[in-house]
């Protein structure tokens, strides 16, 4: 098969192709020059000396050190503004961030349990009445201890941090009524599967029905006035067997353990030697009181917690770490409380920065502190706690 010879490109067409190729190359070169000029303009210093002497030490320092530093500061500032804007957006759009993050209040319309998928953790909800939904927010986070400050007003027990900031509700409406309803629902017999009495009374947590919930009542006024009001309002829990109590010889743990501190009258708590269902919050840093002929002053028959202010008993952490002396004090206090059969709690723990807070939390858990005092329910719920059961009866 014969092949025809290739025809040469006419001279005028070859000149046109070369011209087009040169034009494209020139355009690409101009584009690269424009890009380089733009980049160089970013780093170009506007100081007259740097412009007049571009290769001087001052101009080189300005281009290589000063300007990159300012750009880095600008980027960090923008990121910080974006973070603040995101937090503000969450605050404005989410009615209840805590319940938005935590499991829903009722995951199933066919279940009486409101704490499905909630794992109990050793957190104490400090000043729990400041939550958007007192008690419920703490239970949704898995806290096994909640705190309410109470003030006597006539025949009522008001809840609040001070006289001027009391809530519209009372201890009965904010805590006792909702808690009693939860326990009644959890212990209601089913038509198809009646509750087996030998299994005991169920608590508030579906994942651990035998976990007791501690209700810490802080007496803010005269304890002699609050005491009869509190004992009267606990009668419904007492009648249904929901309260942990001392029967004269042993502690019988039930779904709710009531602990009193603040101006709580220790003499009224220990008045009866055969029955007690309100326990004392003993001073952790002063457990070495002279023992009576009946034994130590603070013991499981009259006390449940042993608490102290972290800042006063342990001190500040200027180096963001516990010193050897502070760690020794912590271990000594924890050991003294556990030897008496009491559970340890510190309040006033560092809350910021978050890294320091988490370090203190981990150290407290590692050293055997039984509950972690917290104002940040979300942070506590996300913490990787050691998985084991606490205070079963």
Q: How do the helices and strands line up, and which of them pair or pack?
A:
Blueprint: H1 11-43, H2 48-52, H3 57-93, H4 97-101, E1 121-125, H5 136-141, E2 143-153, E3 156-159, H6 171-186, E4 213-219, H7 223-233, H8 235-239, E5 245-246, E6 251-252, E7 256-262, H9 266-269, E8 278-283, E9 303-309, H10 310-313, H11 324-339, E10 343-347, H12 354-366, E11 371-374, H13 377-382
Parallel strand pairs: 1-2, 1-11, 2-4, 4-7, 7-8, 8-9, 9-10, 10-11
Antiparallel strand pairs: 2-3, 5-6
Summarize this structure briefly:
With 393 residues, this protein is of the alpha/beta class. The chain is built from 13 helices and eleven strands.
Report what the structure shows.
The protein is α/β, with parallel strands linked by helices and 393 residues long. Helices cover 41% and strands 15% of the residues. It folds into two domains: 19-93, no CATH class; 107-188 and 200-382, Phosphatidylinositol (PI) phosphodiesterase (TIM Barrel, Alpha-Beta Barrel). The strands form two sheets. Strands 1-2-4-7-8-9-10-11 form an eight-stranded parallel β-barrel. It has a two-stranded antiparallel ribbon with strand order 5-6. A hairpin with a 2-residue loop joins β2 (143-153) and β3 (156-159). 30% of the residues are buried.
